[in-house]
Amino acid sequence: MPDQPVPVPVERLGFEMPPVHDTADAARAHRKERLAEALRLLGRLGYEDGVAGQITARDPEFEDCYWVNPFGRAFTALTADDLLLVDGDGRVVRGGRRVNQLAFAVHAAIHRRRPEVVAVVRAQGPYGRALAALGELLAPITEEACAFYEDHALLDEYSGADEPERTALALGPYKALVLRNRGLLTVGDSVDAAVWWFIEAERAAQVQLIARAAGKPVPIDHRAAALTRGRFGSDLAAWVSYQPLRELVASTS
């Protein structure tokens, strides 16, 4: 497990801190709104492919229940009212549509194994899938990629079907997982952080593939990469970094 990251002094940047809610209802409403916004953003960025792609967010009150996008609905059209509440066995508790049960089972397994995780993102980006086709981890060749240094893993196996427990075990204590021949999966202690890690991992994969095509990338050494991860690799840093992107959908909702 990676060293604990150095706290980011976000108060110096003028950002509000992640909100703290007095009631479960308030926390639930906020989490659902952030989830719907994140889905719309990923849709705008092109990170969905047909019916594939899912974000889950743990309910703040009900144990082993998670909010998730309904099966077969475009990300860009979703609102908080469209989200489903699904229990850990894949049963829809609230909502009138179906859930992608095969994909949801993976999310549920991760949530159960990682109780500190609020959100899990599994979406479809071209560069993450290309990196996964190579069976490679993200290399520490840029400052941004160092956020994942020794804090992500590779599931170096393709079985043709999602395997919940194996995927959750492969993720371990890390923030991201490269699923060989499939793509990327990320987690975070908020919806904002988990989505930012997915977008940042996708971008890091893009740079890595471009650099490899152009020549031989020069990696950042272990000490510098670890220090950089300490500065920029926390979920709080991810939450802060995500806020400008979030404005893209929040301002047009």
Summarize the structure.
By secondary structure, the chain is of the alpha+beta class. The protein is built from seven helices and eight strands. The longest helix has 24 residues.
Topology (elements, then pairings):
Blueprint: H1 24-44, E1 54-58, E2 65-68, E3 84-87, E4 92-94, H2 101-113, E5 119-122, H3 126-134, E6 152-155, H4 164-171, E7 176-179, E8 183-188, H5 191-214, H6 222-232, H7 235-250
Parallel strand pairs: 6-7
Antiparallel strand pairs: 1-2, 1-5, 2-3, 3-4, 5-8, 7-8
What would you say this structure looks like, in words?
It is a single chain. The chain is globular, with a radius of gyration of 17 Å. The protein starts with 23 loop residues before the first helix and ends with a helix. It has 253 residues and is α+β, with helices and mostly antiparallel strands. The longest helix has 24 residues, at 191-214. Strands 4-3-2-1-5-8-7-6 form an eight-stranded mixed β-sheet, with helices on both faces. Helices cover 40% and strands 13% of the residues. The protein has one domain: L-fuculose-1-phosphate Aldolase (3-Layer(aba) Sandwich).
Spatial order of strands in the largest sheet: 4-3-2-1-5-8-7-6
Total number of distinct structural domains: 1
CATH class membership: Alpha Beta
Broad shape:
globular
Cα-atom radius of gyration:
17 Å
Mean pLDDT: 92
Strand content: 5-15%
Total number of strands: 8
Question: Class by helix and strand content?
Answer: alpha+beta
State the helicity in percent bands. Answer: 40-55%
Using the 3D structure, state the CATH architecture: 3-Layer(aba) Sandwich
What are the segments in which pLDDT stays under 50 over at least 5 consecutive residues?
A: none
What is CATH's topology name?
A: L-fuculose-1-phosphate Aldolase
In N-to-C order, the SSE pattern is: HEEEEHEHEHEEHHH
End-to-end distance, in Å? Answer: 39 Å
Tell me the CATH superfamily.
Class II aldolase/adducin N-terminal domain
Multimerization status: single chain
